[in-house]
Structures are given as C-alpha cells and as structure tokens.
Amino acid sequence: MTPALAANAILAIVTFGYAALCAVSPFGNCRKCRGFGFQLITDRRERLRPGKTCARCHGERKRIRVGRHLYNLVRRIHRDGTR
C-alpha cells in the first residue's frame, strides 16, 4: 500500500466516523464551559464555585456540532432550491 493510498484511507475513515458521530449525536458539550453551563471560579479558599453563565451556550450545556450544522445548512439550501 502506497503512503498516498494509506493517507486517503485514513482520511476517509476519519471523515465517515465524524459523519456517523454527527448523525447519532448531533449535540456535543460546549467547548467553553465543558458542559457545565457556567464558568468555574475559585473563592479565596481555593474552592470551585459556579461563576457567570456561559456566553456561548447560554447555560444550555450543549452546542450543535460543526458537522451537523453544515449538514443542516446543505439540507436547508437544497430544500429551498427545489420548492
């Protein structure tokens, strides 16, 4: 197997794996708050406490994955174009 063929095979496996992940689980944890819904802060005794609500997910804890967002966009454009 040539290196180019191996690289293409690995790229195809990763791409189809991510597509399958987006199909099975379209929402993932927010990358900023790591799924907590708020930023963690420490008080003077170094204990973790909830801080402000996350600005990205607005406390919802989940965000739509990039691949699922692109799929929804392509599907919406196709649907609007075939009406």
Descriptive report:
This protein is an alpha+beta fold and 83 residues long. It contains two helices and four strands. It has helices at residues 3-24, 66-81, and strands spanning 27-29, 38-42, 48-53, 62-64.
* Sheet of most strands: 2 strands, antiparallel
- Which class of secondary structure composition applies to the elements? alpha+beta
Poorly predicted segments: none
Beta-strand content estimate = 15-25%
Secondary-structure element order, N to C:
HEEEEH
Strand tally is 4
**Cα-atom radius of gyration:** 19 Å
Mean pLDDT: 88
Distance between the termini: 47 Å
What is the count of helical runs? 2
Strand order of the largest sheet: 1-4
Helical percent range? 40-55%
| Broad shape | flat
Write a brief caption for the model.
The protein has helices at 3-24, 66-81; strands at 27-29, 38-42, 48-53, 62-64. With 83 residues, it is of the alpha+beta class.
Label this structure with key terms.
83 residues, alpha+beta, two-stranded antiparallel ribbon, 2 helices, 20% strand, flat
List the topology elements.
Blueprint: H1 3-24, E1 27-29, E2 38-42, E3 48-53, E4 62-64, H2 66-81
Antiparallel strand pairs: 1-4, 2-3
